[in-house]
Design brief:
Layout (H helix, E strand, L loop, with lengths): L7 H6 L8 E2 L2 E2 L5 H18 L2 H15 L5 E3 L1 H7 L3 E6 L9 H14 L4 E6 L3 H13 L2 E7 H6 L1 H9 L3 E5 L6 H15 L3 E4 L9 H9 L1 H14 L5 E5 L4 H7 L9 E9 L10 H4 L1 E5 L2 E5 L24 H8 L4 E6 H15 L5 H13 L8 E6 L7 H4 L10
Parallel strand pairs: 4-14, 5-6, 5-8, 6-7, 9-10, 9-14, 10-13
Antiparallel strand pairs: 1-2, 3-4, 11-12
This protein binds pyridoxal-5'-phosphate (PLP).
The site of pyridoxal-5'-phosphate (PLP) has 19 residues, from helix 12 and helix 16.
Length: 411
């Protein structure tokens, strides 16, 4: 097996991160000195694991028997017919255990923690999805688990708090700052610095200081590798276009990574356009952000002219964050990946269309990607192929969505 088992052309054309943990001018390790030791230890341990066939086999075994991989690549015929253009395929991460792609990273990192001899894992969570994925993997592997969550978020996401506790995790309320995700991340980093001898920090997306963006990407890249094999078997060629929503960016880079070296494949990342493109009303970092540093890495950040982190809004909690992974920032600069946004309204429309035509209720995050499929497919040829990442299922969102939409009543 190759070192990371990804397409060698990607490694040739996109050799990131470099030895400083950078993607072009993005990424890096902007952390207090006390954390540098922990990051170095993690990088070494991960490098060993990535090259260890036994570790990769163990991971593949859990991915298959526990997570349910490979997830299907599904030809969405009714949506295809309805839009009248390109053939639309969904990569069904919504069918992975716990209902989203986040388990790929949580499982990989918890196995890594075990291998490093660390009996305790911590995680940050906003909407609770990454907390649930980490609590799940920790239960599976018999690790102690503590999840930091903003007090405000705990209030909004009671069901996920209950889920985590049910699986034996301790959920710690963070009362600092805005009492949301970014405060929870700060608290988790603090805990990690103090307890690094026996604790691993399971960071939930392709952000934070190196090596986290690389580790999370590598564990998510299974999505794209499977897609390549599945599409080759189904139609014998590569897709024309791939579309995924971008919060921190892990499901998007997970699908795209294996194809970055395939120049014929157009890639589109979809951010949260929220209510409108005014400060505080969206989370479209590439449209409204600028070069900045947040939580240990340089990237695009929504901030005011004094560098104060901007407020964000999105109907979907998973896309509602002021910064984006450094690898995406680099791919934005090089134009290898196009970035656009979908508004709350467009996402809610897509949410309903997909439910009605395909019998698949998507996560509101994924609905942003579907909104882009709706814009692109009609202008493409009938033998063109779009692969969209269905990053998660929408059961978690139906109550929230019900506040905004009224499905047609029975007549
Ligand atoms: C968390 C989440 C996202 C956003 O995170 P990324 O790191 O950008 O993938 C997208 N979709 C779902 C279903 C999520 O739970």
């Amino acid at each position: 097996m190759k070192k990371y088992a990804n397409s060698s052309t990607t490694r040739e054309k996109h050799p990131w991160p470099d030895i400083h943990g950078r993607y072009g001018r993005y990424g890096g390790q902007y952390v207090p000195e006390t954390l540098m030791y922990a990051l170095g230890e993690l990088e070494t341990a991960y490098g060993d694991a990535a090259n260890d066939a036994a570790f990769q086999e163990q991971l593949a075994d859990y991915q298959h028997h526990y997570v349910g991989r490979p997830t299907p690549l599904y030809h969405a015929q009714r949506i295809t017919e309805h839009l009248g253009g390109a053939q639309v395929y969904f990569k069904r991460e919504d069918l992975a255990h716990t209902g989203a792609h986040k388990i790929n990273n949580a499982l990989g990192q918890c196995l890594l923690a075990k291998r490093m001899g660390k009996p305790r894992v911590i995680a940050e969570t906003g909407a609770g999805q990454h907390g649930v994925a980490t609590a799940t993997a920790a239960a599976l592997l018999g690790l102690d688990c503590e999840v930091y969550m903003g007090a405000e978020d705990m209030d909004r996401q009671r069901l996920n708090v209950f889920r985590m506790r049910l699986m034996g995790a301790k959920v710690v309320a963070v009362d600092a700052g805005s009492r949301t995700l970014k405060d929870a991340i700060n608290e988790a980093l603090r805990d990690w610095a103090a307890n690094v001898e026996h604790t691993h920090y399971v960071l939930g997306t392709v952000h934070g200081p190196h090596p986290f963006p690389m580790i999370c990407r590598d564990f998510q890249a299974v999505i794209g590798r499977e897609t390549r094999a599945q599409l080759t078997e189904a139609v014998g060629r590569l897709p024309n276009m791939m579309i995924a929503c971008v919060g921190g960016g892990s499901n998007a880079i997970g699908l795209f990574f294996d194809f970055l070296g395939d120049d014929s494949v157009t890639m589109v990342g979809v951010e949260a356009g929220g209510i409108e493109m005014a400060p505080g009303m969206h989370a479209a970092r590439f449209a409204g952000g600028s070069l900045g540093m947040l939580q240990g890495a340089v990237s695009y950040v929504l901030q005011d002219e004094n560098g104060l982190i901007g407020n964000t809004h999105s109907v979907s909690a998973g896309l509602d964050y002021a910064s984006v992974g450094p690898e995406h920032a680099h791919c934005f600069d090089t134009k290898r990946i196009e970035y656009t946004s979908a508004s709350d309204e467009e996402a809610l429309e897509a949410f309903q269309l997909c439910s009605r035509l395909e019998g698949i209720i998507p996560a509101l995050e994924s609905a942003h990607a579907i909104a882009e499929v709706i814009k692109r497919a009609p202008g493409m040829a009938a033998n063109d192929i779009i692969v969209m990442n269905m990053s998660g299922r929408g059961d978690k969102d139906v109550q929230h969505a019900a506040r905004f939409i009224a499905p047609e009543e029975d007549v």
